[in-house]
Amino acid sequence: MKKVINQPADFVDETMEGIVAAYGDRVHFLDGDRRVLVSGYPSQKGKVGIVTAGGSGHLPLFLGYVGAGMVDACAVGNVFASPAY
After folding, report:
1. Averages of pLDDT over each 10 residues, the chain, 85 residues
2. 65, part of any domain
């Protein structure tokens, strides 16, 4: 099976843009950074923020944990590589 991607170098950013396009009412980028997805749900005062991270690969697995009652943000790295920051 062939892959359906435009340019390999753009894969992660385009995936992230697609997530925000589909779920923009629930998540957004942190200050426009396409590698950090933040929950759009209000947080409780005094709550400790929880952030997870991982590489991009077969599935945007860690992105699915961002939301109400779950993690507050997710940072993603390149394909099969953790975030560099």
Report:
1. 80 91 95 94 90 77 86 87 67
2. yes
